[in-house]
Amino acid sequence: MTQGKLSLPNKTTNGSSSGQSTISPAPPSYEEATASSSSPCYSDAEMLTEFGWDDKNIRRIFIRKVYAILMIQLSVTFAIVALFTFCEPVKDYIQSNPGWYWASYAVFFVTYLTLSCCSAPRRRFPWNLILLAIFTLSLSYMTGMLSSFYNTKSVVICLGITAIVCLIVTIFSFQTKIDITSCHAVLFVFCMVMLISGLVLALVLPFQYVPWLDAIYASLGAILFTMFLAFDTQLLMGNKRYTLSPEEYIFATLSIYLDIVYIFSFFIQIFGTKRE
């Protein structure tokens, strides 16, 4: 009796295993797989970056979209700079009302933080384009007001220099085999140097204006953001160590546009001649 009782479960087990051998088990759900897995977790951005660049057509569409939006941004900025530089009534109005500058700076700062730090509004259409348009208008106003204090010829020359430099850097970033994206530590140290230099200048310049200090700081700023332009361009390309996700076209456009505007702002401080 005992032997029969013991053999019955064994037969049942064998039978069930033989019956189940012909049926493949159902795949676990996402929650079950992630709950039982002991492998390290990856962020959403990294997963999208890892699988998004397998298709080269996705990269081409991504780059085309970024540069199409960038061209619109630069056209708006160029139009506002030209208006503030060539139109005397507009120039006199913005120079006599600096409050609009600080208002545009506040809008620029808020929209920049929103687009840079919050992935939800950055990826949600059409709010991402609306925020990017507000950001572009505010930064264009600030750039146009800065240009209004300089000679018209100087502004045109600096615009030409900026366009040539950005074109050379972009071509270099696309053609070179040097991986600039792996040099993020160098850029971080350079940013810290610029931050400390800016704080020193903020303390020194109010007491006595030193032109060569201002020129050195502007030169370092132009070099830094030229390097950032190459860095962001290679992030956009996607064939280096670090890449951007195809969904981050707003962030890519924001970064490259900001680099170009800052390069122009530093160039006009170096080569520009202020109005009498």
Q: What does this entry look like structurally?
A:
- With 276 residues, the protein is mainly alpha-helical.
- It has one domain (56-271).
- It is 78% helix and 0% strand.
- It has helices spanning 2-20, 30-36, 44-52, 56-86, 88-96, 99-117, 119-123, 127-148, 152-175, 184-204, 211-237, 249-271.
- The chain is globular.
- The termini are far apart.
- Mean pLDDT is 77; it is low at 1-22 and 33-53.
Could you tell me the strand content as a percent range?
under 5%
Mean pLDDT: 77
Number of strands: 0
Structural class: mainly alpha
Q: How far apart are the first and last residues' alpha carbons, in Å?
A: 114 Å
Based on Cα principal axes, name the global outline. globular
Biggest sheet descriptor: none
As a percent range, the share of helical residues equals over 70%
- SSE order in H/E notation? HHHHHHHHHHHH
Unreliable runs: 1-22, 33-53
Q: How many H/I helices?
A: 12
Radius of gyration in whole Å, from Cα?
A: 28 Å
Number of separate structural domains: 1
Provide a compact summary of the structure.
The chain contains twelve helices and no strands. The chain is mainly alpha-helical.
